[in-house]
From TrEMBL, chain A:
Main localization (coarse): membrane
Known partners and oligomeric status: Composed of 13 different subunits. Subunits NuoCD, E, F, and G constitute the peripheral sector of the complex.
Gene Ontology MF term list: 2 iron, 2 sulfur cluster binding; 4 iron, 4 sulfur cluster binding; metal ion binding; NADH dehydrogenase (ubiquinone) activity; oxidoreductase activity
UniProt keyword annotation of Glycosyltransferase present: no
UniProt protein name: NADH-quinone oxidoreductase subunit G
Cofactor requirements of the protein: [4Fe-4S] cluster; [2Fe-2S] cluster
Automatic annotation (TrEMBL), chain B:
Name of this chain's protein: Hox1Y
Position of the signal peptide: none
InterPro entries tied to this protein: Hydrogenase_assoc-protein, NADH_UbQ_OxRdtase-like_20kDa, NiFe_Hase_small_N_sf
Gene Ontology MF term list: 3 iron, 4 sulfur cluster binding; oxidoreductase activity
Pfam families linked: Oxidored_q6 (PF01058)
The protein's required cofactors: [3Fe-4S] cluster
Keywords linked to the UniProt accession: 3Fe-4S, Iron, Iron-sulfur, Metal-binding, Oxidoreductase
Record gene name: hox1Y
Statement: the UniProt record of this protein carries the keyword Iron-sulfur: yes
Species, as recorded: Thiocapsa roseopersicina
Domain NADH:ubiquinone oxidoreductase-like 20kDa subunit: start-end pairs: 17-164
């Protein structure tokens, strides 16, 4: 869901977030304004430097006068907005979203290479998820170890599509894509062939670094060893967009 | 000044590695302080053979994987005022639940026949029957306090017990997490 490109000359709007009066460019999204003002908004699919996807819904906020909740990543600010970012209702929804992510696939943190460095794991702790209230789906997914440097474990994938977007928008290879529907969605390389046989993959590893969980990891890492580095992304994104 | 009455604590170990009980013992010298505030009335750590009728705090480690686990979980729920689910196996199934992706017969064959060279056979005497699906404790009985972690640290267990001794319901998310 790419938002229209930012304009050089835009108006400034004023809005209120959690009781604070703030001003922002009218082409900014709520999550951008919150991040600029150190207002914490949880998110998993949103990543600065990539296009907006709006899939995880963890960044939901409440807007006065609106019955439904809005995703802060895909909603532009407008004049006079009254936004609440951390109400009891939002906390309840976020907790449920994280629980559903855990129930959908098989995130066994204790034997994961990303244990201790996983955004989903941290999110669970932050949202107070100490157990999952729905039954686990217990679906079986394969592991693709065909790439000589990297590994894909669908069990750990939360379908945030960061890998798809970084490969397309920053690396320019578009090796990754998504197939299937609903909870049966899967990220795929090329035409759903083994990653190691991909003609388009440049083995740059950007997808691995932006993956929030242990779904995409380096080969040879053991439990808790996979630490990811996303510092490159805003720098590369700025260079891409300034071209 | 009279000392406050001790609370009674029962623990048991279902399908897990006993790491949570090891972490419990990892409280080191704090165990001495703990003994002044709790009576451990039933546990792998003591020699009592039967679960008393009335226990203040029951602590279950491990997931529900066999008929025996099921029975113990029901007994703990029946006899304990507060039931604590300790560790990832108890809270979310963890490693024992990874067998849920396979048929039970295949799992048993793998353990007792495929990988055994000397007298491969499936034990049937003196061992409880395995259930087809491994479940977390709260998939079978109601749980009051969830303490995730593999294992939860001694500090986390100390915090949980201290709060329970003080008559409060702890919120362990501040001190532990899945996979901790």
């Amino acid at each position: 869901m790419p938002l229209p490109a930012k304009q050089p000359n835009v108006r400034v709007v004023t809005l209120n977030i959690d009781g604070r009066d703030l001003s922002a460019r009218e082409d900014e999204t709520i999550i951008e304004v919150c991040r600029e003002n150190q207002i914490p908004i949880p998110s998993l699919c949103y990543l600065e430097g990539l296009s907006v996807w709006g899939a995880c819904r963890l960044c939901l906020v409440e807007l006065s006068g609106q019955g439904r909740l809005l995703a802060a990543c895909s909603t532009r600010v407008t004049e006079g907005m009254q936004i609440q970012t951390n109400t009891e209702k939002l906390q309840r929804y976020r907790r449920t979203i994280v629980e559903l992510l855990f129930a959908e696939r098989n995130h066994v943190c204790s034997v994961c290479v990303s244990n201790g460095h996983c955004e989903l794991q941290h999110m669970a702790q932050k949202c107070g998820v100490d157990h999952v209230r729905v039954p686990y789906r217990q679906a079986s997914y394969p592991v693709d170890s065909s790439h000589e440097m990297f590994r894909l474990d669908h069990d750990r994938c939360i379908l945030c599509t960061r890998c798809v977007r970084v490969c397309d928008e920053i690396e320019g290879a578009h090796t990754w894509d998504v197939m299937g529907r609903g909870s049966d969605c899967r990220v795929i390389t090329d035409m759903a062939q083994p990653w190691g046989e991909s003609d388009t993959c440049t083995s740059c590893g950007k997808c691995v670094q932006v993956c929030p969980t242990g779904a995409l990891v380096k080969q040879g890492t053991s439990v808790g060893e996979m630490v990811k580095d996303q510092h490159f992304l805003p720098i590369l994104a700025r260079r891409r967009h300034s071209q | 000044m009279s000392t406050p009455p001790k609370i009674t604590v029962a623990t048991t170990w279902l399908d897990g590695c006993s790491g949570c009980h090891m972490s419990f013992l990892d409280m080191d010298e704090r165990l001495i302080e703990l003994v002044q505030q709790v009576d451990i009335v039933y546990s792998p750590l003591v020699d009592t053979k039967t679960l008393p009728d009335h226990v203040d705090v029951g602590i279950l480690e491990g997931s529900i994987s066999s008929e025996d686990d099921l029975e113990k979980a029901h007994a703990f729920r029946k006899h304990c005022k507060i039931l604590v689910s300790l560790g990832d196996c108890a809270v979310n199934g963890n490693v024992p639940a990874m067998r849920n992706h396979f048929k039970l017969a295949d799992v048993v064959d793998r353990a007792y026949r495929d990988t055994v060279t000397f007298q491969p056979q499936t034990p049937t005497q003196g061992v409880p029957a395995l259930l087809a699906v491994v479940k977390p404790i709260h998939g079978v009985v109601g749980v009051d306090v969830f303490v995730p972690g593999c294992p939860p640290s001694a500090d986390a267990i100390w915090y949980v017990l201290s709060e329970l001794i003080a008559g409060r319901i702890p919120e362990p998310s501040a001190v532990t997490r899945f996979g901790a």
